[in-house]
């Protein structure tokens, strides 16, 4: 540690003594180039869902933007809290995450049904690659924007049930949006703040590396990866939501099957005169299915070029319903795994 860092650390600890706080493993530390807030907290054995907000509050002058860490900078480690507020048995009633946008950044924690579960969520394409393209009422629909919005909604749902969630693709400019037409942009980056490459293999490897690196920080923990896409087929082809997994992954297939069961049941209830044709099948050759460590499900939400399927995306309540239905399957899978 440099002399400057030692001086800062000494002054920091002196200020602690005069402010009447109890030190709980608190210190200053330099953030590594590969770390985001989640990784920094995990390295110090602090649950991110519990300490994220306090980290943001005590380090707000050291952040690049709202939540981006600056490599090589000293950050305070959460833990300096008044003794009377320490309650190891309680859970937060609300978590604040600006990634969800101003309207949805306050996430109420409704229960702990997913406590101990870790989820990696990946929305398809992004950055310079919009993915599949459709036209709706003279407007352009891009796969990456709608897949990202549904994925964000799913992330918020899972966090509300006590899960640890990593959004591998993030857009600090776009929180959850209630618009029908989601404007296209190229501002998505990875969880670690890296720009997304145009080359498909490089882009997929970048995401797989992010997931696999985090996987090793959660050894002996229930972990699952969910990747969300929107397909592009003939304009006349109306398709249902379907699911891919690895042929050798019993846990990945179990997750896909539980979500699939929810969709079957929901279709039977809401569209009793229309049979549901979505399936669970092997796609072991897909890069993310083949090269990531957690059991995973790859979800295609529909055909972005088909008018009936487009209603699944442009109607905001339908996007939320997709997230809700996936969440129900996720919760069922976690319960059965335990």
Write the layout of secondary structure elements.
Elements lengths: L2 H16 L9 E3 L6 H7 L4 H11 L15 E3 L17 E3 L9 E3 L9 E6 L9 E4 L2 E4 H17 L4 E4 L1 E2 L18 E2 L9 H16 L7 E9 L10 E4 L4 H21 L9 E3 L4 H5 L4 E8 L3 H8 L1 H22 L1
Parallel strand pairs: 5-8, 5-11, 11-14, 12-13
Antiparallel strand pairs: 1-2, 3-4, 6-7, 9-10, 12-14
What does this protein structure show overall?
The chain is an alpha/beta fold and 338 residues long. Helix content is 36%, strand content 17%. A six-stranded mixed sheet has the order 8-5-11-14-12-13, sandwiched between helices. It has a two-stranded antiparallel ribbon with strand order 1-2. It has a two-stranded antiparallel ribbon with strand order 3-4. β12, α6 and β13 form a beta-alpha-beta unit. The protein is globular and about 60 Å long. 38% of the residues are buried.
* Structure annotation, total helices: 9
Percent range for helical residues? 25-40%
Average pLDDT, all residues: 87
Terminal-residue CA separation: 44 Å
Across the major sheet, the strand order is 8-5-11-14-12-13
> Looking at the structure, what is the overall shape?
globular
Low-confidence stretches: 1-26, 80-89
Portion of residues in beta strands equals 15-25%
Number of strands: 14
**Helix/strand class:** alpha/beta
The biggest beta sheet, please? 6 strands, mixed
Order of helices and strands: HEHHEEEEEEHEEEHEEHEHEHH
Radius of gyration over alpha carbons?
21 Å
């Amino acid at each position: 540690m440099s002399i400057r860092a030692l001086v800062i650390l000494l002054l920091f600890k002196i200020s602690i003594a005069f402010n009447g706080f109890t030190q709980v493993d608190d210190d200053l530390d330099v953030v590594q180039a590969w770390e985001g807030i989640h990784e920094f907290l995990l390295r110090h054995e602090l649950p991110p869902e519990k300490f994220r907000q306090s980290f943001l509050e005590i380090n707000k002058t050291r952040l690049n933007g709202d939540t981006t860490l600056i490599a090589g900078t000293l950050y305070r480690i959460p833990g300096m809290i008044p003794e009377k507020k320490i309650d190891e048995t309680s859970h937060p009633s609300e978590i604040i995450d600006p990634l969800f946008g101003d309207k949805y950044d306050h996430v109420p924690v409704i229960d702990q049904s997913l406590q101990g579960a870790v989820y990696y969520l990946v929305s398809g394409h992004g950055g310079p690659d919009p993915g599949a393209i459709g036209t709706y009422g003279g407007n352009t629909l891009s796969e990456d924007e709608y897949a990202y919005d549904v994925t964000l909604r799913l992330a918020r749902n899972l966090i509300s049930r006590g899960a640890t969630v990593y959004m591998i693709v993030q857009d600090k400019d776009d929180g959850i949006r209630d618009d029908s037409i989601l404007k296209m942009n190229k501002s998505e980056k990875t969880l670690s703040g890296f720009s997304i490459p145009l080359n498909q293999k490089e882009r997929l490897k970048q995401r797989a590396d992010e997931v696999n690196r985090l996987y090793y920080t959660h050894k002996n923990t229930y972990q699952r990866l969910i990747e969300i896409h929107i397909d592009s087929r003939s304009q006349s082809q109306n398709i249902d939501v379907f699911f891919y997994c690895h042929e050798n992954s019993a846990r990945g297939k179990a997750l896909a099957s539980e979500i699939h069961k929810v969709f079957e049941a929901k279709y039977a209830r809401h569209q009793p005169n229309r049979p549901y044709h979505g399936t669970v099948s092997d796609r072991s050759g897909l890069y993310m299915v083949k090269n990531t460590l957690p059991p995973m499900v790859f979800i295609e939400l529909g055909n972005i070029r088909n008018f009936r399927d487009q209603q699944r995306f442009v109607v905001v309540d339908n996007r939320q319903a997709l997230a809700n239905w996936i969440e129900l399957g996720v919760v069922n899978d976690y319960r059965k795994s335990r």
